[in-house]
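Quick one before lunch.
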Amino acid sequence: MCGIVGYVGSDEAGNFLLDGLRRLEYRGYDSAGVAIHCGAEFTITRSVGRIDSLAGALGDVMPSGSLGLGHTRWATHGPASMENAHPHLGGDGEVVLVHNGVIENFQVLKEGLIKKGYTFVSATDSEVIAHLVADELKHAPETNGQPNLRYLAAVRAAVAQLRGTYGLAIAFRDHPNFLIAARFGSPLVIGVGSGEYFVASDASPLVGRTERIVYLADHQLAVLTPDGFSVLHRDQGKVRVDIRPLETDSGEASLEGFDHYMLKEIYEQPESIRNAMRGRLDDENATAVFGGLNLTPQQLRSVERIILTGCGTSWHSALVGEYMIEDLARIPVSVEYASELRYRNPPIDNNTLIFGITQSGETADTLAALKETKRKGHRTLAICNVVGSSIAQAADGGVYLHAGPEIGVASTKAYTSQCCVLAMLSLYFGRLRHVSFESGQRIINELRQLPAAVQQALACDEQVRDVAKKYQDASTVLYLGRQYNFPTALEGALKLKEISYIHAEGYPAAEMKHGPIALVDEHTPSVFIIPRGTTYDKVMANMEEVKARGGPVIALASRDNPEVESIADDVIHVPEVPGFTQPIVNVVPLQLLSYHIALLRGCDVDKPRNLAKSVTVE
Ligand code: F6R
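Model of the fructose -6-phosphate complex:
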């Protein structure tokens, strides 16, 4: 979603701003803009569409100045247009700001400002904040020799009136030597350089510019000048903050010969799974080890119920986790959409542990669900990819995925790493209970086979490409699987709709007869995930039912399965692996299938329409 960059120092601000915005492109956006202070005032350049058009609008000679702000906007209030693109001006142009988040009371504030004579050029909630700061400046007391204190007072007074979420970077026409940043519910980081300071909505724009970073917390404001920075609580005084080393993998990602990030990330999975497991398998005790759970084995032993929550693909990995934890550790699990959990107010027993699962660590609903359950006194843990993200900070502890930056909007390697972490947690909880040493060792061995099995699954790429050619014009595709492969069916369907815009549905295979079978005809392919195992015969019967109604069948099955070959129109071969690791292996051909279909249909694979990488609004 929206991205923020800001610079104050002695270098040309424009270089950092444009490069930084490119690094934020992966978050998803539909317009962009920069403001650079060029002497007496700001030069503002905006564009609709990609950063390339912004670069075109800026021309060969970038406006010169050493203070500036930049923004990528994902439209919420008002369409993607030049007027709605940030930066926005407040008052008579003395305030310029960029904003991430949503202001819920913007209408009331806007009406009040209009009555005072302010005029609005955009439909955004963000422009309201710019005028509000300008209005507060009129009442802010003079602070001799320290103009930033007066401006700080105005920003404090303005943000105190906002209901909703904000990440703000604000600059002032008449004092071009400082920036103010403010955060509530929308992440912001400060890059600490020498003689230069940066603000950004995540760490990726900072890579290569500084090695030191500060994560702002909610209700904090920062004042940045070329000589230093300070952080304050919105309603109190200065706050001591940790300056942390910037993780080198925070955003430095290149295509390395692949055509798209999504494809690269699909191919990285053997390695990302290895990284998720690195140092976490303990042969001596036949269990898994985690450094950051922040709970004693006794506390973990007393867990009687687990809630797994997340959104989208992360919700699918929660479903996989439900099967794994109940199967291996025998602890009851419920899976909740974070967006529902945050408002539903379900009764939660003592000794319930809540895991928020998230790639970005910034998903607004997952963050809110964790905060709400934590407020009620429950232990909250995060399974998260982005180090230092809001959810990683808000949880009591957790497990990092170590999958490296995921740039493609459609989640792939983060998903398999989430499943892998959940498998290790199942082993860990199981070994605290009934799982024997011997079974623990077997599970460890099976986990160790995973990178090789995923590598083998990637070998189906050519085969999948042919299948994609055949079905690229389908208007609906069904995905069917049972048990461990039911979440895989959901995830396969989500991947297809996200990037190829084909309607797709995932179901437990047996559910098909209860409705979806009505969709089956000769133009509606069904993808069956059919490994050998307890429900194999039942899924075979479902496949026959689809065939009997003229529906084309694509089967994901092991190589030596003549029975499946005789019924399915197309068979994609996957390695045979134990049940609990099947979701991690079987999703790979489905990721590739969506990729190839999307490519054939001419879709923008890495930046699908309407989608954002970090969904930081409700
Ligand atoms: C799907 C996808 C989304 C995310 C969802 C949650 O490919 O990427 O469905 O999974 O927005 O995001 P995170 O995991 O960052 O909380």
